[in-house]
Amino acid sequence: MSQPTGVIHDIGYRHYDGPRLGRGAGAVALFVYSLRGTFGLGRTFKSKIMPFLLFGAMMLPAVVSIAIMALLKQAPMSYTDYAVFMQPVIAIFLAAQSPVLVAPDLRHRVIPLYLSRPVTIVDYIGAKFAAMIAALLILMVVPLTVQFVGELLIDLPMPLHTHEYLAALGGSLLNAVLLASIGLALASFTPRRGLGVASVIAFYMFTLAASAVLTGVLESEGHRDASSWSILLNPFFLVNAVQTNLFGTQPVEGLPFPSEAGPALILLAVVALALAGLYARYRKALAA
Predict the structure, then answer these.
(1) CA angle 30–32–38, rounded 5-degree value
(2) Cβ–Cβ under 8 Å, residues 147 and 62
(3) Helix or strand or coil: residue 2?
(4) Least confident of 20-34, 85-99, 132-146
(5) CA 177, CA 165: separation in Å to the nearest integer?
(6) Rounded to a whole number, what is the distance in angstroms from the first to the last CA of the chain?
(7) Whole-prediction pTM value?
(8) Over the stretch 72-96, which tens digit does the pLDDT of each residue have?
(9) What angle is formed at CA 34 by the lines to CA 53 and CA 168, rounded to 5 degrees?
(10) H runs (alpha helix) in 39-120
(11) CA–CA distance, 182 with 271 (Å, rounded to integer)
(12) Where are the domains of the chain?
């Protein structure tokens, strides 16, 4: 009698006969999935609480500004300074949602599964990066646009702040690119979501404190030129300086930002360094 060699069980897997959409479609699908994840869409109700609470907090000044315009006929809140004034809310959103995009795949070690298809590591990182940028843009641009629409509908005894609104949109894009690169890079160095949140918050608190203390010390010693550079340690002030130089708007609170191309070069260098660190982290994860 022959010995049994094994049994094949039908467990329900079916062959896929549909169209092969390729690398681009895979990257787009990953982008959409990641963007939905930043706002908890398609997940439990608990996952939606934090992002939507923070979005509501970002909307509150715009709603109050519209009410003031309607009742007191006063100018709206500064468009170009909106992100600086609301930086704690934006920083908390970045800290809470950056690990959502990177930690689960690193913790469960599923990166090779993504890359077993036409999607490459550059596509994967690009999709995550673009999703975080889009989420931050939604967080920042929607309140600005609501406030501008309110200004359009209310008859104010002053010209429309169209230039400031458009400059603020450009600043929002710069903020989104810079913050997304930093947030994802920091969050990717640990597969634990809680540690990722802590690392992004710690970075923000450190740059906020270092910028304020160092600028105060340098100004008290009479080194005003040096203090104008030290304040750029805060990412939000760095973007505000670039925005001021690019679009000719007023700096936040009249701060003496450098007028050269230096702030823009610093911003580009930080983004490049953060993305290089993110790429290196995923290369290490693949090799592990």
Answers:
(1) 100
(2) yes
(3) coil
(4) 20-34
(5) 19
(6) 47
(7) 0.91
(8) 999 899 999 999 999 999 999 999 9
(9) 60
(10) 45-72, 82-85, 87-108, 111-114
(11) 7
(12) 23-287
